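Quick note —
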Amino acid sequence: MKPIVFLLLLSTSDVLGQQQPPTKLTCPATEKAILDLYQVQHQAFYKRDFVTFAGVVDDQAIINYDDGRRRSKSEAVAAIQQEQSGNETMDDGPIEDTIVKFEDGVAILSFAQGFRNLDLNAGFTTTGSARESYIFGCRGGEWKIIFRAETPVPNAHRAPDISVLSHLDDYVGHYRFYQNGDKGDFHVFRKGNQLFESTGPKEVDELLPGRFDTFFVRYDGQVERFMRDKNGRVVGIYYVFSDSDLEARRVGD
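Predicted structure written out below.
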């Protein structure tokens, strides 16, 4: 949906049926200016510098985090203040796939970023990646953040468990969905040391092995767990999606 949001924002004159002259910018329309301002906001967030963070965010800003909730500027600042100090988040490498665009008085920034989160109490570290998108508005000669959205990128760098390669044949077979009246046949097949799932001639996904009979798909948050009977034979698959689950039974080899 985000490309639609940007399209509506940048095409206001078309919606009104009027030819509007380009908005004259009084802010520096350079990639460096936008990236520098992003870093000011980014470092203020990590350092819990609420004054600096609030200073670069417009009072009418809309801020969306990876929990799916929409926050105003005041709500975003309050959320940062309330975060528990038992977690420490840090960048995991530089930003990637960066693009900066200037159009109709605003600047758009989009990039991918890896991060690490350290639980200071339990002593473990998790990693992740996200696509971040910003819109900046020119306010009195200074850029201000007027929109921010963070979209998680699942399994962008997760390493497969190579110990599973020794028994990939266990999972090969013909399966059928059956939960809640859903029907449909599909196949899991092997090519060398790779496992694939196909629900049609053009619908083929590579399944990357995790631990305990689980598999994942690159850039997709779903998890598939192959289920075994008491004799150790794979008899079905249990799928966990972002907001639902699904089951399939094995009906053939």
